[in-house]
Amino acid sequence: MPAKTAISIKNVEKSFGSLRALDGVSLDVEEGEFFALLGPNGAGKTTLISTLAGLSRADAGQLFVMGHDVVSDYQPARLALGIVPQEIVFDPFFSVRETLRFQAGYFGIARGASLDAWIDELLANLSLSDKADKNMRQLSGGMKRRVLVAQALVHRPPVIVLDEPTAGVDVELRQTLWAFIRRLNEQGHTILLTTHYLEEAQQLCSRIAMMKAGRIVAMDSTANLLNAFSERVLKVMLHESLPESLAQRRTKQSGAWHQFAIHDYADVEQLLAQLREAGVAIERLEVSEPDLEEVFLKVMGK
Amino acid sequence: MIGFRTLLYKEVLRFWKVAFQTIAAPVLTAILYLLIFAHVMSNSNAAFDGISYEQFLIPGLAMMSMLQNAFANTSSSLIQSKITGNILFILLPPLTHWNFYGAYVIAAIARALAVGCGVFVVGLLMAHIPVHNLGWIIVFAILGSGMLGALGIIAGLWADKFDQLAAFQNFVIMPLTFLSGVFYSIHSLPTFWQTASHFNPFFYMIDGFRYGFFGKSDVSVWISFSVTGLAFLCLSLATLALLKSGYRLRQ
Questions:
Q1: Beta strands in chain A, from DSSP E residues, in sequence order
Q2: Which of A229, A247, A122, A104 is nearest to A181 (CA)?
Q3: What homologous superfamily is domain A5-227 in, according to CATH?
Q4: Fewer Cβ close by (within 10 Å): the C or N end of chain A?
Q5: 0.80 surpassed by pTM
Q6: CATH architecture for the domain at A232-289
Q7: Which of B136, B173, B172, B151 is nearest to B235 (CA)?
């Protein structure tokens, strides 16, 4: 095991009855990476995370967190891992602060000023300071989800797994949450994220794996995936028909809109010059950057 | 050790925060039994010689309440956590199956002792209760409630729904406690039922516990101790094995 691998998953298989939820999944996440695991519902993302967390046991294969096998060496593996679950769960008997103190205690952290200071810092970063002494039942769904994030971080794990952490969280708080997670990543925490908001993954993650039917169908750096499966596009809206010389370069037409694939901005110059030469007036113009949604749809459609 | 202590503290706080329901209510139920049965049975020969029926009944009721509440504590905590999903909070940390077992069983014993003391204190207002040997009283209180705490873990792990747990409680725990000699000395029973009672481990817990008060029992206190101790050991080993295997907790 190389020391710098935060998460290592080797040929993991898991079936539920006749359903093969994980069909030979292998992937490595290096220390300090911000890694996205994407895929449609039922692709096996949550099963993979459950197996990593020890909530589910793999039928075959091995999983390591910071070099520790999650089954045979589960204590250091779990100490190194903070999981934000997809489902909102809470203990209705306790307040936010009690919940966090208990969670820290389960991970072997004694009560005291240092823990309380860290809990306060977590709550402040998650905009929950004024809810510290409220019972969990009194919190909204978005607040409960942020408490789950705090619970996952309370033992300061080097590896943090977020399973759709922003579902049901409003835009402003989502930004706050991501700023916080990004800061943790900059401090050296490894982040594994699953999300249905592809633009979040595109903005935050340096590497992406895509899962479909229990298998990894694409895995590369975000930049490489975008280059391989998506392109910059120039769209022009014309009143007149497209000159013959440009018709061959057109990739798509929809009414008066004509679409061209471009590699760089010199291509835009050239296309516009050709339109000018042909005396065609441009009504409207748009340039769109490569986007992960397109990559996702292409990869899933393969 | 901090992990174990935290889980134990959480489990104790869980019932303590609703003490009215988890301690006061069972004490009240026991008092009602005491009032009604003591009134109806006062002239019967169901107790030991030289001991009034009220005196005889109080330790039995205390023990019955302790056993039922020890079972209720672990089983209801587990099923609630499973159904609400917050069981996750104790499955993700590096807690061992020993931590889990120890915290749940000790919390169950704590609740049982609180209920038992409550019944006993109220009982003292109604009858004089001698203490023959405090050691035996404590041993049987701890072994009995520990055993039911462990059984509660098994039932809580096994059950997926509240009604399954209620079935376990109503069809296993209740008959075994009611038919264990809480309300009568088994010597007052026909021979067949006397023999049948000897196959009920709850009988030995109650008989041994009562011996601690009166120095009298249906069977030797050492037999009761052996049976209760063995049952506690077997159920504890079974519980530990289930927890270690992740039975119904880890898929």
A1: 5-16, 19-30, 34-38, 60-65, 68-69, 81-84, 159-163, 190-194, 207-212, 215-221, 232-238, 250-254, 257-262, 282-288
A2: A122
A3: P-loop containing nucleotide triphosphate hydrolases (3.40.50.300)
A4: C
A5: yes
A6: 2-Layer Sandwich (3.30)
A7: B151
The arrangement of strands across the sheet holding A215-221 comes to: A81-84, A159-163, A190-194, A34-38, A207-212, A215-221
Q: Is A176 on the interface with B (CB under 8 A)?
A: no
Contacts of A106 in chain B (CB under 8 A): 3, 6-7, 89-90, 93, 95
pLDDT at B231: 95
Cβ neighbours of B95 in A, within 8 Å: 106
Please give the ipTM for the structure prediction.
0.89
Mean pLDDT, rounded, for A260-273: 86
State how far residue B195 is from chain A, nearest Cα, in angstroms.
Answer: 46
State how far the alpha carbon of A181 is from the alpha carbons of A2, A114, A290, in Å.
Answer: 25, 21, 25
The residue type at B197: S
Residue A135 at interface with chain B, using a CB cutoff of 8 Å: no
Residue type, B194: Q
* Pairing of β A207-212 and β A34-38: parallel
What phi, psi does A175 have (nearest 5°)? -60, -45
CA-based nearest residue to B70, from B112, B32, B104: B112
State both tokens at A258. Answer: 């004509």
Q: Are B186 and B193 in contact (CB under 8 A)?
A: yes
Taking contacts as CB-CB distances below 8 angstroms, the residues of chain A near B88 are 55, 85, 89
Residues of chain B with pLDDT below 70 are 45-47
pLDDT single digits (tens) B192-238: 888 888 899 999 999 999 999 999 998 999 999 999 999 999 999 99
Tell me which of A15, A75, A79, A91 to substitute to probe the interface with B (most B C-beta atoms closer than 10 Å).
Answer: A91
Spell out the residues 6+ positions from residue B106 whose beta carbon is closer than 8 angstroms to its own: B8, B11, B149
Where are the domain boundaries for CATH 3.30.70 in chain A?
Answer: 232-289
Please answer yes or no on whether A57 and B5 come within 8 Å at the CB atom: no
Query: Measured between alpha carbons, how far is residue B39 from residues A134, B34, B180 in Å?
Result: 49, 8, 21
Q: Residue holding tokens 């096994």?
A: B158
186-245 in chain A: CB under 8 A from chain B: none
SS3 B170: helix
**Contact across the interface for A78 and B94, Cβ inside 8 Å:** yes
Dihedral angle of Cα A164, A168, A174, A178, to the nearest 10 degrees = -10
- Contact yes or no for A89 and B5 at CB 8 A: no
